[in-house]
Amino acid sequence: GKCVAILTSGGDSQGMNAALRALVRMAIFHRARVFLIYEGYHGLVTGGDCIRETSWYDVSHIMGKGGTVIGTARCKEFRERDGRRKAALNLVKRGITKLVVIGGDGSLTGANIFREEWSGLLDELCTLGDIDEQEQAVCSHLNIVGLVGSIDNDMCGTDMTLGADSALHRILEAVDAITSTASSHQRSFVLEVMGRHCGYLALVSALACMADWCLIPESPPTDGWEEKMCCQLSQSRKAGRRMNLIIVAEGAVDRHSKPITSQYVKGVIEKELGHDTRITVLGHVQRGGATSAYDRVIGCRVGAEAAIAVLEADSTTEPVLVGLQGNKVVRSPLMECVRKTQAVSSAMKAGDFKNALAMRAGSFVR
Ligand code: ADP
Fold it and tell me: Where is each Phosphofructokinase domain found (predicted)?
């Protein structure tokens, strides 16, 4: 029978478990054997107890849990060819030739490299005497399918990454909590949300909770923005609002690529307006807690499709990314998605925001 292995890698996110559950069950439904790899690529390189065959009921009651029940890690060894050769040996010894990776663009880049090197790695293992010619022949092709788990919504090839919606829910809960205390004291709050290269969480949460001002990396404000912001804040106070809310993405920068920190924003408001101003950095709270209905459902949908895609794949199939486009679950060439995502990051680093936004248009709000 066909053997499928699944791992989660990179930063954890809600929805990974829903995808994992659907993957396991759809693959078993199609009579495949399914292996779970614990602790991401670290488990793949280590083998042993980190790779365990799983059953239908092993993945019961995990859909709504945040994070990933099979663990995730950052793994230096897998970045080296020696590490990837160990990983290949661990798969061949179990007859696994189908691998599904749930992670961010780094993890998916690693998966693609692994698959490109696969036949070379098997040659080396054969020469070393770690595998025999029959094992090499049986496992001659590796099929890869990628799913994107990331709260940042920062990947091309899918309109929504798993976890972004749940993270928005956490942010809105925090804003609701802050709003009551802030208006009691007539304070201003600077809320810092995650998103190093992607302002999705900041922008969408700002829309959803009527923030006064929002700073994101994709759209650096023009010089003199501080004055405009303060004008906006004092206008809304004059109109009767008892608090102000400014949402800052952690990667926000100005026109000169200088980071705009929460501390800086607070300083400006205190100096120009004299407001009692506080900072809240949400940090890992955004990754925590229950998975939203939306992330559960898209986790199920992309997970089920990923199982079908990896089981259908043959020796000629290129790696695919299963994502959501216009509310349809679609397969796209994995490497093209990774390349586009990296091109967006490079454009942002180079200060070419117009181009970066245009390339990301599919996954961004319009
Ligand atoms: P994310 O997947 O969330 O972008 P990382 O970039 O940290 O997170 O990648 C997670 C893991 O994927 C790394 O620790 C490493 O094991 C593997 N990986 C990332 N990039 C590569 C690469 N270029 N080659 C091989 N492995 C990689």
Answer: 4-307
